[in-house]
Design brief:
Structural class: alpha/beta
Helix content: 25-40%
Strand order of the largest sheet: 14-13-12-11-7-10-9-8-15-16
Number of strands: 16
Shape: globular
Number of helices: 11
Radius of gyration: 21 Å
Strand content: 15-25%
């Protein structure tokens, strides 16, 4: 494979046999046969979420790295699961007639093409977040799901969490009064300096050309591979589209499907001295028609505001609501304490939100109803986060025309 431009690969990747389009129906035994594309870290959590449901079976797995395939096969064997077939080219997964669902757990730059190919082949798909690396690619994934009438869920699993839903309903109910500002932040001390290793040779058993895929051709560097790919612009969008998509997702769930009118962003690498590219510190301000949304992140910083690692904070005229993974808290504004009941709710220990998200998707595969994080929602959330990076990298306040889906 010598030419890995996006255009050339799009033509090649979608050359799936026409017979595959008839393969998407759930089997009569009610089993859901999954083809997992990508065997990296997130695939462990996602596959476990699906295997928590008895009708699921991982029939085939795919990765460009033989070592990742072997680790996945060993893990599934320890779980008492049958050995799945293994391939290194995702198209061999999609062309199979016995696969009902594609579980796409690749790096971000490999989300769009397998998803579109799966939809074209008549398969449903669970796609990790964000949907793609650009707004245009994200829109293409959403449009393909619509065009082929496929069921698709983006892997922002908090959308299936009960305490998140409670917080969203509280905002929508008017308990906070007029909400004029929403703030999302992630202060993550576990993200460290990854060093400056030299370029080198890809590990044995890795199809590096296939790993690069639609991204620009570059020498192999261990920091641009596996987990750390997310800190390089060729493959992802840093914390803005990693943790940002999770938190912004909840903020937009509560505030509605509006698009921002304009976006400003500032940040850079002020702490880390490694060869990563995305900012370790960033603040993004979105001007929505009826409120302001702020995103901020820092790395190697223990706790953010209110001694939390991350949170979404809705500030209203009557009360403020603070939400994180542990629960939510409603705090009355001083002048409203006589009329607003302050409340607190902790998320139950052991609550498996990721498995609940998979359950919602599986139920919708069978009912053909839209999942909670369908791709209309997923495209909206992913694109809002991506626009933050567009503003950062362009060093400009960008104006967004939502109807034309373009920066003006």
């Amino acid at each position: 494979m010598s030419d890995w431009s996006r255009r050339a690969f799009m033509g090649a990747s979608l050359a799936i046999p026409a017979t595959a389009a008839r393969a998407a129906q759930v089997s009569p035994s009610d089993r859901v046969r999954i083809g997992m594309i990508g065997c990296g870290g997130i695939s462990v959590a996602d596959s476990n979420a699906f295997l928590a449901h008895p009708e699921c079976d991982i029939a085939a797995i795919c990765d460009v790295d033989d070592a990742m395939i072997a680790k996945t096969q060993q893990r599934l064997q320890k779980l008492g699961r049958r050995q799945p077939d293994a391939v290194k080219d995702f198209r061999r997964i999609i062309e199979r007639k016995d696969i009902d669902v594609c579980l796409i757990c690749t790096p971000d730059h490999w989300h769009a093409l397998p998803a579109i190919a799966a939809f074209e082949a008549g398969k449903d798909a669970y796609v990790e977040k964000p949907l793609a690396v650009t707004v245009n690619e994200s829109r293409a994934v959403r449009d393909a799901a619509r065009r082929y009438n496929r069921i698709a869920q983006m892997g922002t699993h908090w959308r299936s969490g009960p305490h998140y839903a409670e917080a969203v309903e509280m905002v929508r109910s008017g308990k906070l009064g007029k909400v004029r500002q929403v703030r999302c932040f992630a202060y993550l001390d576990w993200i460290g300096d990854i060093g400056n290793p030299p370029d080198g040779t890809p590990p044995a058993g890795v199809d590096y050309d296939m790993w690069l895929g639609p991204a620009p051709k570059r020498p192999f560097n261990p920091n641009r591979f596996h987990f750390n790919f997310r800190w390089f612009w060729d493959y992802a969008g840093g914390l803005m589209t990693d943790w940002g998509v999770h938190l912004i997702n909840i903020a937009l769930w509560a505030m509605g499907p509006e698009w921002p009118k304009s976006v400003m962003s500032s940040g850079g690498k002020y702490q880390l001295k490694d060869n990563s590219e995305t900012p370790d510190t960033q603040i993004t301000v979105y001007d929505f028609p009826s409120y302001t949304l702020i995103w901020e992140h820092q790395v190697q910083c223990g706790l953010g505001p209110d001694r939390r690692e991350h949170a979404v904070i809705w500030t209203g005229s009557d009360a403020t609501l603070i939400l994180d993974q542990q629960g939510w808290e409603l705090i009355a504004e001083p002048k409203k304490r006589s009329s607003v009941v302050e409340m607190r709710r902790r998320s139950p220990a052991g609550e498996n939100v990721r498995a609940a998200h998979a359950r919602n998707f599986l139920d919708c595969v069978k009912s053909r109803q839209a999942p909670v994080e369908n791709l209309d929602v997923g495209h909206h959330v992913s694109s809002v986060a991506m626009l933050g990076n567009v503003a950062l990298r362009s060093k400009a306040r960008i104006e967004w025309d939502a109807e034309a889906s373009r920066v003006v």
